Batch of 3 targets.
Target 1
Amino acid sequence: MTDSINASLDAKFLQDWMELSSFGAVEGTGGVERQAASVADGNQRKWFATLLESHGFRVERDAIGNQFGLLEMAPGQPFVLTGSHLDSQPTAGRFDGAYGVLASAHACFRAARKFRDDPSLKPFNLAVVNWFNEEGSRFKPSMMGSSVFTGKLSLEEALATTDSRGVSVHEALDSLQERGIFDGVDVSSYAEIHVQQGRSMEEDGITIGLVDAVWGAHKFELRITGEQAHSGSTLMEERSDALLGAARLVVAARELVDQFDPGLLHTACGYMNIYPNSPVVVASEVQLLFDLRSPSSDVLSAAYKKFTEAIHEVGRRDRVDILTVAEHSWEQNPYPEDGVELARGVANELGLTSERVMTIAGHDSTNMKDKVPTVMLFVPSVDGISHNVNEYTRDEDLIAGVDHLAGVLLRLGGSLV
Amino acid sequence: MTDSINASLDAKFLQDWMELSSFGAVEGTGGVERQAASVADGNQRKWFATLLESHGFRVERDAIGNQFGLLEMAPGQPFVLTGSHLDSQPTAGRFDGAYGVLASAHACFRAARKFRDDPSLKPFNLAVVNWFNEEGSRFKPSMMGSSVFTGKLSLEEALATTDSRGVSVHEALDSLQERGIFDGVDVSSYAEIHVQQGRSMEEDGITIGLVDAVWGAHKFELRITGEQAHSGSTLMEERSDALLGAARLVVAARELVDQFDPGLLHTACGYMNIYPNSPVVVASEVQLLFDLRSPSSDVLSAAYKKFTEAIHEVGRRDRVDILTVAEHSWEQNPYPEDGVELARGVANELGLTSERVMTIAGHDSTNMKDKVPTVMLFVPSVDGISHNVNEYTRDEDLIAGVDHLAGVLLRLGGSLV
């Protein structure tokens, strides 16, 4: 391609990126709010379908609302799939997920143009995906669409999940006409690109992150049960205060971090549902979510053991019942080495700096890599700000990522080696 | 009165009590849920108005939804007012407030009968009041109706207050047709009866509690501001976690109690509003309410000082901003001694055991006693359970309270001495 054609493609990407960033824009910030199956999510989905169709893609939706754009250039063959998610957290950045979806579309546009420009290239089938509800803010769990697609979560369970107002996934998708009957595609390989949710690439001056592993994680939902009482008159020693128990565990989770070397353990509680949550009433029930994450399996299991002890100690001391309602965990877990090396080759060829990085957060690719050959890529994020309206990645890095992803797709499809 | 007439009045009270307890009944429990200006509150208000009218009362509503039943037997003279509140906390007991309102009505019925039976008694004006929103669970602050009535809170501010869904007091009252234009009554004295929210009377075998003081209290609303971030990937030392700050303060408030002699300090946090309250997101803001209460002014001010230090320490250590949005406090505070002695005389005359008690919780009488001669009475509560569906007071104690309150009203009105 000539430089002028590249400049035009880049300009088109940035134009589309501006349009996409307008959906659910949070006034006075660069951020967005478009939680899964919200009105803003519905609007961006329609916009995205129109964009894909204008480039010759066929757009389909499956039963959990995953949105696919198909470019069938080798009828009957499996597809190279690429994508991420358009849904966001509340008052979130505009890059998380959405960049990966639009970059995937534009990388496919570039690959398709290659085939038109060079008839000697062997064409293959390309598909873009916008996975439903990666964030898990409105409907839990996160990575819902890719979990159903990979058989890790049942469709029935996912559709029946309700938000805090009692609206089910089924109802929310139907209200947007985004629940479909598409059977899905036969996938030969998968690629995803995302902004790094950390600052290491930014600090090291690296443009392409070659994701080689995901941190181990242990996530659980606890239900703490106390006894509703008057919070003024009830004697302190007779209280069974679920919110006090919850607070002790939030503090315990934070203090756990300092028992390990710096950087080896992340802990968090960001969600708590308190009942009756009323002034002058001792809380009778708190549901809350905890995450423990580590790049080391030993640290993760030691931290889990210590946290379990803290749960027992709080239950005993504060006379509350603490039940583990749900938990799931994954080991520190590699991405396929072939994919890392393939992506490194593309970066070298394009003259882009690259380095191996781990992802602390899970992605839809964390599901896909267990099923098919998968490549996971990062572009840098200024100051590593994430899940915040101030999240920011420079235009040149966004564009480099699209270029790089296009190269990865052509190699995954076997048109280039 | 003869025993058979008394038995019939008692039976009528218990029948009305059963009917009243059916509004907002929580299935499978003896409790109720009828928060201020809810549908259940509207229904019980209509029932109560009909009851009063059937006994010859004129029913009026003022601009903040206080419901008055007027029995004008001495035209142009001021009124002896008696009442409490029908609104409840979520999943609350059926006695808190509601007993006081129905006991007031029946005490007035008994007083009115006295006048009919004994033409030598000098009649006076009697009024029953159902104060709006004593609990403060749906609309803050608590004791809203009596605070507006006594000029401690402006009507405009109270009407503009919104619940968590953005519905204002003004709108909620209008939807029930419970916002009126009544100017209020000229009150000569006030009496209120309530179930004790503690177990001391039960343990001491006492039927009538002569409330002689209210504990001191310091209540405040804090807003903790952190920085929204990805709760997996953000480095621990870079986080500014509002929920962690909130949890540290909940623990600090509990630990404060142990720095004083047993029973001298109660602390509580029962309400927390977390934003964005989403999995995998560090909270950027938490609003929460704290109460410190003590029967000793010295303890209360020492505890307040220590808690203020804890606020500064948490802000510094966890890098969060902590703002005191609102606070109000009252000193340990006596009820009029004349009223205590008047109530003791009535108990002696009726052969009921009585003792002086303090109230830890505030009541509408806490507002009224600053304006007019006021008597505050308790009946015992089994195990002192409060703000809980298992709250329970025996029928014989309920009835003794009605009898006693009727005697108090006749003395406050000057018909008996």
Note: Chain B touches chain A through 68 residues (CB under 8 Å).
Target 2
Amino acid sequence: MSDLNDVLSRIDAEREQTLAEFVQLLEIPSISSDPAGSAGIAEAADWLKKKLSGMGFDVRVVVTEGHPLILAHSSAEDEGRGPRMLFYGHYDVQPVGEEDQWTYPPFKPTLVKEGDITRIYARGASDSKSQLWSFIETLRCWHLVHGCFPGPVTILLEGEEESGSASLPAFIETHKEDLACDVAFICDSDMWSPTQPAVTTQLKGLLHEKVTLHAPNPDMHSGYFGNVAANPIRILSGLLSALHDEEGRVAIDGFYDDVKDIPVALREQWQSLSRASYHLESADLRGGIVENGYTPLEAIWGRPALDINGITGGNQGPGERSVLPASATARISFRLVAGQEPATVRNRFRDFIRLRIPEGCRVEFEGGEGSRALAMSPENPFVQAVSRGMEREWRTRTILKGSGGSIPLAEMFSDVLGIDCIVLGFILASDAIHAPDEHYDTERLHRSIRSWAYILDEIQSMRE
Amino acid sequence: MSDLNDVLSRIDAEREQTLAEFVQLLEIPSISSDPAGSAGIAEAADWLKKKLSGMGFDVRVVVTEGHPLILAHSSAEDEGRGPRMLFYGHYDVQPVGEEDQWTYPPFKPTLVKEGDITRIYARGASDSKSQLWSFIETLRCWHLVHGCFPGPVTILLEGEEESGSASLPAFIETHKEDLACDVAFICDSDMWSPTQPAVTTQLKGLLHEKVTLHAPNPDMHSGYFGNVAANPIRILSGLLSALHDEEGRVAIDGFYDDVKDIPVALREQWQSLSRASYHLESADLRGGIVENGYTPLEAIWGRPALDINGITGGNQGPGERSVLPASATARISFRLVAGQEPATVRNRFRDFIRLRIPEGCRVEFEGGEGSRALAMSPENPFVQAVSRGMEREWRTRTILKGSGGSIPLAEMFSDVLGIDCIVLGFILASDAIHAPDEHYDTERLHRSIRSWAYILDEIQSMRE
């Protein structure tokens, strides 16, 4: 216990230095989905490699067809000391979107004191640089105090999580030995509230589909043909608005056929959680559609979803243009639950669209393989160890929660490596994740680092 | 008659030189709706000023809050010789749109021999540089032969027709004396077919509306809130798909209340024209919706239309982005017929949308004043003179046609200056107007110049 106190004291003492270094990481524009972001990705990978090497890790930057992965191993001396632990985080960030919607520049991190807390505004401040930074700093302080870890540590930092993790499946297949471990901590999830920790034991599957509707003509003058020829925007709008019924259900034929009901016991837990959900309170749900018969929290965590993430067609401005466009495109994502196969959902969606395409028009689809939903037992010893560790820092119960989000990696780890995946994290839906003015706060950054110290201490106790 | 033959001979003899100079004009990227196009606009205005000055015109480039207008007058010696004629054209062009959809570069005019004709590919090759070039070259050759015109000539060349003619109303008001004339030839319309000329005696009114739907939240992570919070793309799609009913009618309450029926005699003429319409045959109408009870030609020329010209919301690519966007925008245009007031249509549209906005969401509208529809009597002596002139060149009947397009200028000339507006031109819907690979052909360019010579000859005969 005195060693743990030494670790916590060091974390407290180095709080400012830790923050200053975090700001440096946030300054690097590591946008993975934009080809222009490659330089930022390379810079961030290099920065992290130096950081981990300086901590005594054996670090490799693994080049892929996409963006590089960072793979780090602790000293061989940790072998046999306890469970082999893999820490996962991602250093890439979402695109900025419309820069003029940001109050603070996305890659010049700005600290703003707001009431009792100090916010850090920057792209990636929350999702997900704060997350990897928390376990890196804990591991650093832990090692300085103990000279070793509670078991062999592998760190895996990904550079294309926000752009679909295209290189990850092949990487995992070819690096099974490098990744061999007993438990993976996937630090990419959220707390229950700013003051209450959580482990995410249910994740949704994810499937992206891009659908482009082509009219039989190229772009034409809308005055000349507008009242009579096919308008892809009108047709696509009709298709999109037919995707949900009035009960808030997805109207694709057979969409719910394979869906497993939320287990009754879990539903009861979730319903009690619904009553005070920081997550739900952080948004205005008016104008939304919730599937009939479910609470919003049940709908997010336990029911499959279809969202339209983007639409583009014809004139994009700034001025007016009397064009009847040749095509229009929508970007759609599905969030899947237990029982649903991405390939089946994709086929049903494509059939739904194809059946409704007017004569003479043509539809084109693009989409990846997608991932399945994943559930972790609350009885898992690592789930319990992590829960206990976080409870010691936050002095309140750790919530075992679901998520509307997806971490395809967790499915791969569990399928290919056969390991337990513990999904946790310290971000909040109210951090403006994926949005302008994304932010985090210095208090959470500090306490997340302390939380990991307690978690490592719990892991250490497991072997005793 | 021998003088006319001299004019025609000169036009024939200078055919290549005329084409070479036209290509120079096409090289200037005079895009009016894009702020980046200002340099091209200025260059085109300067080029045309020099051209007209060289022809003996008194030329002014009139600066406006938008793009400059070119105003040119022939020598005072033409006073009293015959009807005062105003020639209108516009030297600005549509934006390029997606440049990778062009086979030929939009501002490096490319001549391609295709069967019997030689096509000129360039933005503006058809709409509308070919049009102003036709009367400019005729006037030049006519003056070289005759030393004068059949009456005083004013040339007005606009630089922002493709971006809404915002400066034109004020210009016309303040330049009534400069524009005083007996007839305006608005050279911005199309032929009936590649071999048959037309005068456009009916034009539609035009109203643009931009509608933005705002959700009650900023951009959010669609995994976190996608299944429950308002999705502006979904809501906007629903609104857009509700704008037409299954009969192909616009579903806005009261939309048809003020619409004047197409006169029975005119309908009969149009129905006979429908049987062989080059215009209609130039596009594939499958997938379109034609108002029940009307032929496509009647729908285009004589029935009001609502077109969606653009839509934008959320992720625009290239990669995937799990965003639930804060807003989505559609760009809509109305083509109005006799009886409809733009302000009334706009209010009805806005009411239609406002009534259907879900609680918590907000809608924002932007739009100009719009213009009314316009009709010209077939008995008008200038309509008849122009028809006769074109028949002499094309050796076939001149069709008096309607249009689905709009020329707000014609309404202004007729309202403010009280003059007859004769709308004619030589372009074709199949020229890929407003679209990639816009083109014209050298034969039409040549014959349009000859056509104007016959028209001037007919005007000259009117005074005799």
Note: The CA atoms of residues 274 and 297 of chain B lie 6 Å apart.
Target 3
Amino acid sequence: MRRIAFLLIVVATVAVVIASTALTAGQADEQAAPAFLTQIPAGYRDWKLISMAHEEGNLHSLGAVLGNDVAIRAYREGTIPFPDGTIIVALHYRNVPSEENNKIFGRAQSFVPGAPTNIQFEVKDSTKYAATGGWGFGHFQNGKPADAAFMKPCFPCHAQEKAHDLVFTRYAP
Amino acid sequence: MRRIAFLLIVVATVAVVIASTALTAGQADEQAAPAFLTQIPAGYRDWKLISMAHEEGNLHSLGAVLGNDVAIRAYREGTIPFPDGTIIVALHYRNVPSEENNKIFGRAQSFVPGAPTNIQFEVKDSTKYAATGGWGFGHFQNGKPADAAFMKPCFPCHAQEKAHDLVFTRYAP
């Protein structure tokens, strides 16, 4: 009987050790997980306008930057750093000439959003994304997130905008 | 007594005639009033994004086009003509290089909204603006409406976009 009890204790201890090891491994996995978004935050297309973004160089991009309510309040009140819960999204499109508008205007002056290129996010969560300045970065093409290698330059580049809490975009009045 | 009563009737009649003439004159004034906006619709900066607008030529303009709920619903459902109550606003800014962004990106590629230039509206009211295709046009600079002469080309130019109910901007997905 004592022998059985001893064996049970051994089995239980082993089970606890295995479970606790598994838990630690799980936590380690989570910590090692890429600090970027893998899912598109819901409802972003209904958010309010922060500003526009027009990139030339190799990009020829025309974009709009929207924010959720936390983001918009922070921008309007000039709150820096942005509070946890802030989400900023940039909707990017090709900057293409509008033949239709140009015909009416009588000259080549009008550019409009062409095909969508990508959607980028910055999500503020100072705990979850502590390793990247409190921001989780996201880049989605056809609804699919970019991989870890693609996302690697996001943080070091945004980190150069430290004075504006790693956010390039200013509010357009 | 009869004489006083008669005089009172005369006075009353004259008063009614004067009042009714004044009313008619007022109505005539209203009908002759320029069919464009003289007041900025409230709350427009909180409306949802329709698209962006980038104009070169002499304009060098970067803009965002927003819509009230009636406008957004019509755009998303593809409702043409737009229903009464639709309001579309274009927020225009100078398209200026961002020295700050370019320094970080290492090349001159980034343009952002500079000084605001004007805010333009299209308000759908098929009764009130029957003479201009059901649309009331608005152009505001520093909060002040443009005058009748300035507004005159709005309708004939927009009328060329008849297939899209006098609205140039398409919805950016």
Note: Chain A has five helices and six strands.
